[in-house]
Amino acid sequence: MDLPGALLLTACPLLFVYAVVEAGGPGTSPWLSMAAVAGAAAAAIGFVKVEARSPNPMVRWRSSPTAPGCGRT
Q1: What pTM was estimated for this model as a whole?
Q2: Do residues 11 and 43 lie in contact, with contact meaning Cβ atoms separated by under 8 Å?
Q3: CA separation for the pair 49, 52 (Å, rounded)
Q4: Are 13 and 41 a contacting pair, CB within 8 Å?
Q5: Short-list 48, 47, 46, 37, CA closest to 14
Q6: Phi-psi region of 69 (alpha: psi -120 to 50; beta: other; left: phi over 0)
Q7: For residue 11, which of 60, 24, 19 has the smallest C-alpha distance?
Q8: Angle (deg, nearest 10), helices 3-23 and 30-53
Q9: 28-48 per-position pLDDT tens digit
Q10: Which helix (H) or strand (E) holds 19?
Q11: H helix runs in 24-73, sequence order
Q12: What are the phi and psi torsion angles at 29 (to 5°)?
């Protein structure tokens, strides 16, 4: 199981949704919303880096359209 990838994949949308929902609330600090968006971006970048090094990734990246198993013959 890819626990770091799963945690980052969960954190990214949660932080982004939190930032969007709380951004318009009365008495909400704009810095908190901006920090949540920055955290979501960092989680997304971290997810890509973790999955690139994982031996059993949750998302398989295709390096070229002619890669084996891509559906082209």
Answers
A1: 0.73
A2: yes
A3: 5
A4: no
A5: 37
A6: left
A7: 19
A8: 160
A9: 888 999 999 999 999 999 999
A10: helix 3-23
A11: 30-53
A12: -70, 130
Q: Give the position of tokens 């982004």.
A: 16
The C-alpha atoms of residue 52 and residue 58 are separated, in whole angstroms, by 10
Q: For residue 4, give both structure tokens.
A: 């770091």
Q: What is the pLDDT of residues 8-25, one digit of tens each?
A: 999 999 999 999 998 878
Q: H-helix or E-strand containing 21? A: helix 3-23
Tell me the two tokens of residue 44. Answer: 């997304």
- What residue type is 43 in one-letter code? A
Q: Which amino acid is at 31?
A: W
- CB-CB contact of 59 with 44 (8 Å): no
